[in-house]
């Protein structure tokens, strides 16, 4: 809602300036978005008189003017065809900034003749669209004065953001009413504002127009009055100025009157050209598929849930949203029908949503206009039409009745303290409510005024009281604090998430946050997305990601394009599956693992074991005993089939998948060279129940551990992990660690075989090992290896 | 001068002249070896009379000791010289760079969420979570936004393609559905914050279709607007670590709170940036209010018994205001240069004792 201060003051008697008004509006819940004084940017422009006008020697279309702008006479070069001697206009001196284009005026030679400023057009000062010539002022305009002051433009425009509940403030009057209740000025009676003796319906002559409502749900009340013999010329200057001040273009008297009343009183109206109507006007449901060409030039196809106003032949109005082109008023309109109806907010909202059509009328009806203001609204509209356009009013037609039944709220003044946290005496509360138009009985039954459709219950009344008292005055009250030090609140999964994040960062990975949505193709390449947006912003943001990797790969690619040589990115977020959203950690390693270096030589690339190292570190951070996990395949088609794996806790529960990215996948993301990727499915990690803080008892062994090395020849396809696991399991008393330290195939090892060497750590308990014991352990190791086809190398 | 004295001078001179360990060893052998000159003198003592030995013994032993000490001192000197000579050849250019360390980082949004969790934990709030793909009841209807509510149209909602007969799900437009999920699943007293991703169909310089919000909810007996005000003041002062920060509550409207208030924070301009606190102006920061009785009822609680407050604030915005980023879109671009500049170290864990800010 925009309005100039002068418009507000038509309703509100106050001396307050714009800043004071804005401050009060903010305090009572009407948020001021902006105050714009059009005079500020025009302060340098003055009224000037053209004394002489002579042709420019170098250019046919230019003239050389002598201008009196109140100081010494200035020479100005001007291209306007209407510039002539003795004419008064608006002059911008050197240094002034032209509002329309931000240009700073300078003293400059134009085709060889010095010019000391500019005579301005309406468009240049952003006061209208007229480009044809410079502004012409009446002869009595005071030369040398600031133009904006003289023209009455020093009138700040206040832009208020109206929340959806305050339909009553969708009109200047409602805002004035709220300000008056808050103590800023007094509200002028409405009939005075409109120069009427009383606010009585205008009793016209002749028969009332025939109107009806056959859709009492959508349009419970349809009031109308006809005026015949009107002249639809321009609206009066005061009305045009106000509409222009808020950025609305004056159109014709009849249209301007409805627009004006809509802004001034929050009361939408519609005016029909009676010559275009056939038979009675009826509010009814549209028939399925019925079309209407609306005033915005677009044709809308309606369905049978929508309320329309129609005559015998066609739809003339999408009820409460937008009128039809066919019966719209024009310059030749002679007889009009003024509609003042009540449309049900929920119906308007649904129709507007379905048609994706917004209008000033919809905004107001959707929020709910004052149901008790139909007669008054119609009276004011008819009065303005008669005053401005002349003609003869008919009797009033009233079909249906608006929902005016008052709500009754039982209120306990103590509720203000209990909910609002501030003590306000019952008497003060009563005064506040009454100033706002509520009626309050002696036993605190409160009836909201008809225009406050939003007030439904006791909590709403508390809000009315506290916003008038001022939220600033509510004392801060500490929340009760439990005894002692604050208790931990993080869940086990939240702690896991934090540990993974900080471990990854500690290991040199950079956390990114990528979009939750992907292009369909990328989702498909990573298992396919179940959830697609019906209304995506673009095709690139369409499918909820089934994996975090596409987002990371795209980010890696962007970084490579920006010249990064090494990318280690991770993300912790959700992947979106058919039945749930699963917390996932993922990373991508791309580019150089290590840059070229004076000590180590050439740059090295990442390999799958770099991914494994990270994944093990991250899983360890979550508390998983990584060495107990099974290393299995089926990491997914986006991985290199021979250089990827899953880590599982048991054969079914996959905790992580990692490896080298499939070259085809890497290429699809425009990434060169080996790219490593991994995902940890944090949801699959079993949350350990807390067993208290006590650690298992432990004393460092008194005897030193001993190591023995073994080398086995095994078939090339035997997994080294299986060998290590088998050896570890063969003597759980003595063997505490098995570490693979050499892998060799080639010369000296038969084709189809490989040599694996392990270091076995033995921990004696109460006495050192003797030769026999060592031999027995050694035999067990060799037997275990033999089960995998391993042969001890001599 | 006696012969012994002469011998001592000769030997000491020879020791002094030895410039290698080998030469020194030769001197040692010539003096203290089996055939050595000093050894020869020592042997003569056996044939001496007791009186003679009384006189000559100390002299000869003194000679041996002096020579031994001189040999040991010289040996140590030569070894030292040799070590120094070797070390002199082992010099490295200590201006050479070591292997570069990796600079991992935590995203500012994660860091700020950790900071918020820490601050609110001290006030007794737990962190709650909920789905991002929500149903319309949790996102709107239960929050007192029926289908025709004008605010519902203002939410720029992303809807999911409907599966069969089911009502289309949506991407939550705010973290407020977590309020509903919390109130329907646990008994008051409730104190939670709910951070997470939210979505609006909006994209320009200051809006991204995905961003982060944090919701706060307190439900108990006797909670009122004064508690809300205190909680927000306390949280904002702790988060921005500025005691001079002041807030202003403005009446506003949200369908799910009554009364509702928008909260402005004071700021001042320092070096062209807005710094919170001071008296340079007010900036809108968050929305809040007392949970609407209809919302409490929708969750199966009795609004005559339980009441409380809720608030919601943009996490990305909090990060921008605190740490000075000025482009929201960069948060979701994954640019390593940006992540390394604005990100946080792994060990920058917010704590109450160390401060929640990094």
UniProtKB/TrEMBL annotation, chain A:
GO CC annotation terms, alphabetical: phenylalanine-tRNA ligase complex
Keywords tagged on the record: Aminoacyl-tRNA synthetase, ATP-binding, Cytoplasm, Ligase, Magnesium, Metal-binding, Nucleotide-binding, Protein biosynthesis, RNA-binding, tRNA-binding
Record InterPro entries: aa-tRNA-synth_II/BPL/LPL (IPR045864), B3/B4_tRNA-bd (IPR005146), DNA-bd_dom_put_sf (IPR009061), Fdx_antiC-bd (IPR005121), Fdx_antiC-bd_sf (IPR036690), NA-bd_OB-fold (IPR012340), Phe-tRNA-ligase_IIc_bsu (IPR045060), Phe-tRNA-ligase_IIc_bsu_bact (IPR004532)
Keyword Chloroplast: no
The record's free-text note on cofactor binding: Binds 2 magnesium ions per tetramer.
GO molecular function: ATP binding; magnesium ion binding; phenylalanine-tRNA ligase activity; tRNA binding
Domain of life: Bacteria
Coiled-coil residue windows: none
Alphabetized Pfam families for the sequence: B3_4, B5, FDX-ACB, tRNA_bind, tRNA_synthFbeta
The FDX-ACB domain, residue ranges: 701-793
Catalytic activity: tRNA(Phe) + L-phenylalanine + ATP = L-phenylalanyl-tRNA(Phe) + AMP + diphosphate + H(+)
Keyword check for Aminoacyl-tRNA synthetase: yes
Quaternary data: Tetramer of two alpha and two beta subunits.
Family indicated by similarity: Belongs to the phenylalanyl-tRNA synthetase beta subunit family. Type 1 subfamily.
Protein name per the record: Phenylalanine--tRNA ligase beta subunit
Organism per entry: Sphingorhabdus profundilacus
UniProtKB/TrEMBL annotation, chain B:
Entry cofactors: Mg(2+)
Superkingdom of origin organism: Bacteria
MF terms (GO), sorted A to Z: ATP binding; magnesium ion binding; phenylalanine-tRNA ligase activity; tRNA binding
Gene3D superfamilies reported in the protein's UniProt record: Bira Bifunctional Protein, Domain 2
Catalysed transformations (reactions): tRNA(Phe) + L-phenylalanine + ATP = L-phenylalanyl-tRNA(Phe) + AMP + diphosphate + H(+)
EC category name: ligase
Keyword Chloroplast: no
Binding site for Mg(2+): 258
Pfam families: Phe_tRNA-synt_N, tRNA-synt_2d
Entries under InterPro entries matching the protein: aa-tRNA-synth_II, aa-tRNA-synth_II/BPL/LPL, Phe-tRNA-synth_IIc_asu, Phe-tRNA_ligase_II_N, Phe_tRNA_ligase_alpha1_bac, Phenylalanyl-tRNA_Synthase, tRNA-bd_arm
Family: Belongs to the class-II aminoacyl-tRNA synthetase family. Phe-tRNA synthetase alpha subunit type 1 subfamily.
Subunit note: Tetramer of two alpha and two beta subunits.
Stated name of the protein: Phenylalanine--tRNA ligase alpha subunit
Lineage per the UniProt record: Bacteria, Pseudomonadati, Pseudomonadota, Alphaproteobacteria, Sphingomonadales
């Amino acid at each position: 809602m925009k309005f100039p201060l002068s418009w507000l003051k038509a309703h509100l008697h106050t001396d307050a300036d714009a800043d004071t008004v804005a401050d009060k509006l903010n305090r009572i819940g009407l948020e001021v978005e902006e105050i714009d004084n059009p005079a500020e940017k025009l302060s340098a422009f003055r009224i000037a008189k053209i004394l002489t006008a002579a042709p420019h020697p170098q250019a046919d279309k230019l003239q050389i003017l002598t201008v009196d702008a109140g100081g010494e006479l200035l020479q100005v070069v001007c291209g306007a065809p209407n510039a002539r001697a003795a004419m008064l206009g608006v002059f911008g001196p050197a240094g002034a900034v032209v509002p329309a284009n931000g240009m700073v005026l300078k003293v400059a030679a134009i085709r060889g003749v010095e010019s000391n400023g500019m005579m301005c057009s309406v468009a240049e000062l952003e006061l209208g669209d007229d480009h044809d010539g410079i502004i012409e002022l009446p002869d009595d305009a005071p030369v040398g004065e600031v133009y904006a002051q003289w023209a009455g433009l020093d009138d700040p425009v206040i832009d208020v953001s109206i929340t959806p509940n305050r339909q009553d403030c969708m009109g200047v009057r409602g805002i004035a009413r709220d300000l008056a209740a808050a103590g800023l000025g007094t509200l002028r009676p409405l009939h005075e504002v409109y120069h009427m003796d009383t606010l009585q319906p205008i009793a016209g002559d002749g028969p009332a127009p025939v109107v009806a409502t056959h859709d009492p749900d959508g349009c419970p009340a349809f009031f109308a009055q006809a005026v015949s013999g009107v002249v639809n010329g321009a609206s009066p200057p005061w009305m045009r100025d106000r509409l222009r001040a808020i950025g609305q273009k004056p159109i014709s008297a009849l249209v301007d009157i409805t627009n004006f009343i809509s802004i001034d009183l929050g009361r939408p109206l519609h005016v029909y050209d009676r010559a275009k109507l056939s038979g009675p006007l009826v509010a009814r449901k549209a028939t399925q598929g019925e079309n209407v060409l609306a005033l915005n030039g677009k044709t809308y196809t309606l369905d049978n849930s929508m309320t329309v106003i129609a005559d015998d032949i066609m739809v003339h109005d999408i009820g409460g949203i937008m009128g039809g082109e066919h019966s719209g008023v024009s310059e030749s309109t002679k007889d009009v029908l003024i509609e003042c109806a009540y449309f049900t907010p929920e119906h308007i909202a649904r129709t507007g949503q379905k048609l994706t059509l917004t209008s000033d009328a919809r905004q107001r009806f959707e929020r709910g206009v004052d149901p008790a203001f139909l007669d008054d609204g119609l009276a004011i509209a008819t009065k303005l039409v008669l005053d401005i356009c002349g003609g003869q009013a008919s009797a009033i037609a009233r079909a249906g009745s608006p929902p005016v039944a008052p709500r009754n709220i039982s209120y306990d003044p103590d509720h203000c303290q209990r909910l609002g946290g501030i003590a306000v005496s019952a008497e003060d509360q009563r005064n506040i409510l009454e100033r706002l138009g509520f009626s309050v009985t002696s036993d605190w039954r409160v009836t909201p005024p008809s225009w406050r459709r939003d007030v439904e219950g006791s909590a709403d009344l508390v809000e009315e009281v506290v916003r008038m008292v001022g939220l600033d005055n509510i004392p801060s009250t500490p929340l009760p604090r439990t005894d002692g030090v604050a208790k931990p609140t993080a869940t086990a999964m939240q702690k896991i998430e934090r540990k993974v994040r900080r471990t990854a960062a500690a290991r040199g990975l950079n956390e990114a946050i990528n979009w939750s949505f992907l292009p369909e193709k990328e989702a498909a390449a990573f298992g396919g997305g179940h959830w697609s947006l019906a209304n995506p912003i673009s095709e690139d943001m369409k499918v909820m990601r089934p994996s975090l990797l596409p987002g990371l790969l795209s980010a890696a690619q962007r970084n490579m394009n920006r010249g990064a040589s090494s990318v280690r990115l991770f993300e912790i977020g959700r992947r979106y599956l058919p039945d749930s959203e699963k917390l996932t950690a993922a990373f991508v390693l791309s580019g150089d693992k290590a840059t070229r270096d004076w000590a180590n030589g050439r740059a090295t690339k990442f390999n799958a074991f770099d991914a494994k190292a990270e994944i093990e570190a991250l899983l360890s951070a979550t508390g998983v005993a990584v060495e107990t996990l099974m290393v299995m395949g089926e990491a997914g088609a986006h991985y290199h089939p021979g250089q990827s794996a899953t880590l599982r806790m048991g054969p079914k529960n996959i905790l992580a998948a990692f490896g080298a990215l499939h070259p085809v996948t890497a290429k699809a993301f425009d990434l060169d060279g080996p790219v490593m990727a991994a995902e940890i499915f944090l949801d699959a990690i079993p949350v350990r129940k807390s067993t208290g803080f006590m650690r298992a008892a432990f004393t460092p062994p008194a005897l030193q551990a001993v190591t023995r090395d073994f080398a086995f020849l095994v078939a090339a396809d035997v997994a080294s992990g299986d060998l290590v696991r088998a050896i570890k399991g063969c003597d759980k008393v003595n063997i505490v660690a098995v570490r693979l330290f050499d892998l060799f195939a080639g010369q000296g090892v038969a084709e189809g075989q490989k040599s694996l060497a392990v270091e076995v750590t033995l921990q004696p308990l109460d006495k050192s090992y003797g030769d026999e014991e060592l031999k027995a352990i050694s035999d067990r190791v060799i037997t275990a290896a033999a089960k995998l086809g391993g042969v001890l190398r001599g | 001068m006696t012969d012994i004295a002469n011998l001592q001078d000769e030997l000491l001179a020879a020791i002094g002249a030895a410039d290698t360990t080998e030469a020194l060893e030769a001197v040692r052998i010539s003096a203290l070896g089996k055939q050595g000159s000093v050894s020869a003198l020592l042997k003569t003592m056996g044939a001496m009379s007791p009186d003679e030995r009384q006189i000559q013994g100390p002299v000869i032993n003194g000679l041996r000791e002096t020579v031994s000490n001189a040999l040991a001192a010289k040996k140590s000197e030569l070894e030292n010289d040799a070590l120094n000579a070797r070390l002199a050849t082992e010099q490295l250019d200590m201006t050479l760079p070591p292997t570069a360390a990796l600079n991992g980082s935590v995203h500012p949004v994660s860091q700020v969420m950790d900071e918020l969790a820490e601050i609110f934990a001290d006030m007794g709030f737990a962190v709650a979570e909920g789905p991002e793909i929500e149903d319309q009841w949790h996102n709107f209807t239960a929050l007192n936004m029926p289908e025709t509510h004008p605010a519902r149209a203002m939410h720029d909602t992303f809807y999911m393609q409907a599966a069969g007969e089911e009502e289309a799900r949506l991407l939550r437009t705010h973290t407020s559905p977590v309020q509903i999920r919390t109130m329907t699943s646990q008994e008051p007293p409730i104190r939670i914050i709910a951070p997470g991703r939210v979505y609006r169909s909006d994209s320009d310089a200051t809006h991204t279709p995905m961003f982060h919000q944090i919701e706060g909810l307190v439900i108990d007996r006797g909670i009122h607007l004064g508690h809300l005000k205190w909680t927000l003041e306390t949280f904002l002062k702790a988060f921005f670590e500025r005691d001079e920060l002041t807030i202003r509550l403005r009446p506003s409207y949200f369908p799910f709170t009554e009364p509702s208030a928008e909260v402005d924070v004071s700021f001042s301009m320092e070096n062209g940036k807005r710094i919170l606190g001071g008296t340079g102006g007010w900036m809108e920061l968050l929305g809040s209010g007392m949970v609407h009785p209809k919302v409490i009822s929708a969750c199966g609680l009795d609004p005559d018994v339980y009441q409380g407050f809720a608030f919601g604030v943009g996490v990305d915005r909090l990060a921008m205001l605190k740490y000075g980023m000025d482009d929201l879109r960069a948060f979701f671009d994954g640019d390593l240069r940006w992540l390394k500049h604005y990100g946080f170290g792994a060990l920058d864990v917010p704590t109450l004792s160390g401060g929640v800010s990094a």
